[in-house]
Specification:
Elements lengths: L2 E8 L2 H31 L7 H5 L2 H7 L9 H24 L16 E4 L6 E4 L8 E4 L3 E6 L7 E10 L2 E9 L12 E6 L3 E5 L4 E3 L3 H4 L1 H12 L10 H35 L2 E5 L3 H4 L6 E2 L7 E2 L3 H14 L1 H14 L3 E5 L24 E3 L6 E3 H20 L1
Parallel strand pairs: 8-11, 11-14
Antiparallel strand pairs: 1-5, 1-7, 2-6, 3-4, 4-5, 6-7, 8-9, 9-10, 12-13, 15-16
Amino acid sequence: MMRAYKFLLRPTVRQEQALAEMLRDHCSLYNGALQERRDAYRHASKTSIKYGDQSAQLKEIRAFEPERQGRWSFSSQQATLRRLDKAFQAFFKRVKAGLTPGYPRFKGVGHFDTVVFPKDGDGCRWASTPHDARTRVRLQGVGHVRVHQHRPVRGQVKTISVKREGRRWYVVLACDEVPADPLPPTGAVVGIDMGVMHFLTTSHGEHVANPRFLETAAEELTEAQRVLSTFPMRTRQRTKKHQAAARKVARLHARIRRQRLDHHHKTALGLIRDNDVIGHERLNTAGMTKTPAPQPDPAQDGAFLPNGAAAKAGLNKSILDAGWGIFLGILAQKAESAARRVIPVDARNTSRTCPECGHVAKENRVTQAKFECVRCGFAENADIVGALNVERRAGLALCDAA
């Protein structure tokens, strides 16, 4: 089993400066490699340059710029070039599929926040022992940086990443062969229904409140973004006041993200501890939050019919604030570690199917919160009905697998 461990770094002032320079130079390498690919395709009879061609030039680049490129790990620079190559592979895949291509773009220094070391010991060394208060990670060109290791690392460290989030630095360890830590069986099976009014509802009748972290911080975030927008474009990234305003907006978003993740982890842990099998709807969050397509008015050129985009925008914001996709990913990871089963089921008609008689009808859903079967008269909260149907479908899937 694979698992990622994320720890806070505590660099000195000089080490923090070196870390920033490492990101800057890797960003420069990424942008230079992207420019080479663009020029080769445009001016050299549509020649395509691959990762192997650019990786072979690294020795010359390091020799030409020893103070910038030569001081960093060779393997981390290869990982940066692979990152660009993956971006082009995804671009061509979207082109073949007929989707919006999204050509790879140049990265600004503020948007290039991660450097990957593909192998422990090659440019980066995780030198820690369990419960060691002086845990450090050695980075080529930076030195031994203190790590706040709040839990022991299990398994074999494969790759190491250094990441910047705002003004904080983190190290992310990707470990393989992590042993599972099974929890004692409970014999319980539960279905969960994700929602906006409630974050989730279980088939046992329990509601987990939706904390709405983005909505709670909306007023403070709006004011910070208003201050940031007052700076003219020509002065941006040049004055200390603008940089302070940008940092405040980033700090607020980071706080909301941390609060949401903390809520997801605690909620998922509670479900894992109490249940052996957890069923949930197979949700297409990207499709659910897609903006409605414009509808041209056939009676008037250049005009459009109402398509409900304004009302849909509020629902989309609430769904994204809840973070269903992130939560379900965390739930699956914790279930694998605890030897539990998580079963995604078809989400169609879960809130329109009567759990008593099985009748499916749109009229069963009286309101957003009320369910009443038009055939047998069964009445219940609509979210609980959805969770009951999810539990039933998960049980059927479990029987079919057995």
